């Protein structure tokens, strides 16, 4: 077709079509660029803005044994509390807080709130220091060997007869005498101390040997004691009547 023979309308169509094509290309280019920007978070839509969650609140109540009952409160209307007790930062694979927890050793507790869109609050941290109780041990009183001091308590003084009539113990001053079947053993008590953790049973240590024997008063004043597990009654006791 001869361009010189085109009508005015036909002549104006060519630039219009070209403008439309260029416009479409520009729109597609911009749309592709925006899509890429959104997908790479270069641009975020207002409704995709991260929610700022408040930090969880940690409170504790002390027990008489120095342990603590710890409560963690979520001040937000959404989200789940996660916590750690090893000093690491809590994540969604950390311990999930559901009920109050007991802390009975020195611990660094950390807690955070994470919602279903993975929004995360700052971390609350609290240090718990549990003081260990020290148990005072009874001071051991050692009486020098060959001491002439009377170290046997008064309530044990006297002669004690075995309920089974197999032997007799006599305590006088700081000495003892054991008689059984014609055999007699005597010695001097050089030390008395509690037996294990007992507050009543004593151990009498003769200075002549390297071991002792236990004396259990039972109920004091009842006229009976146990020596190395065997029951003895005081001389002239009603037990023998």
Automatic annotation (TrEMBL):
<keyword id="KW-0472">Membrane</keyword>
<dbReference type="Pfam" id="PF13287">
    <property type="entry name" value="Fn3_assoc"/>
</dbReference>
<feature type="transmembrane region" description="Helical">
    <location>
        <begin position="16"/>
        <end position="38"/>
    </location>
</feature>
<protein>
    <submittedName>
        <fullName>Chitobiase/beta-hexosaminidase C-terminal domain-containing protein</fullName>
    </submittedName>
</protein>
<keyword id="KW-1133">Transmembrane helix</keyword>
<dbReference type="InterPro" id="IPR026876">
    <property type="entry name" value="Fn3_assoc_repeat"/>
</dbReference>
<keyword id="KW-0812">Transmembrane</keyword>
């Amino acid at each position: 077709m001869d361009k010189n023979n085109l009508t005015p309308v036909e002549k104006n169509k060519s630039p219009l079509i070209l403008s439309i094509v260029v416009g479409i290309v520009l729109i597609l280019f911009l749309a592709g660029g925006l899509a890429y920007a959104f997908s790479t978070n270069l641009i975020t839509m207002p409704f995709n803005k991260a929610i700022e969650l408040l930090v969880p609140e940690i409170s504790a109540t002390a027990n008489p044994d120095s342990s603590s009952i710890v409560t963690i409160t979520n001040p937000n209307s959404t989200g789940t509390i996660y916590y750690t007790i090893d000093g690491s930062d809590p994540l969604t694979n950390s311990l999930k807080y559901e009920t109050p927890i007991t802390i009975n050793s020195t611990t660094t507790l950390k807690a955070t709130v994470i919602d279903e869109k993975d929004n995360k609050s700052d971390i609350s941290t609290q240090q718990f220091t549990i003081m260990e109780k020290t148990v005072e041990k009874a001071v051991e009183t050692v009486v020098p060997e060959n001491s002439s001091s009377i170290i046997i308590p008064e309530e044990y003084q006297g002669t004690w007869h075995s309920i089974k009539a197999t032997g007799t113990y006599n305590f006088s001053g700081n000495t003892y005498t054991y008689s059984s079947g014609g055999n007699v053993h005597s010695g001097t008590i050089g030390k008395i101390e509690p037996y294990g953790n007992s507050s009543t049973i004593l151990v009498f240590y003769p200075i002549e040997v390297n071991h002792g024997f236990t004396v259990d008063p039972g109920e004091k004043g009842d006229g009976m004691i146990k020596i190395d597990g065997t029951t003895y009654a005081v001389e002239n006791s009603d037990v023998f009547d």
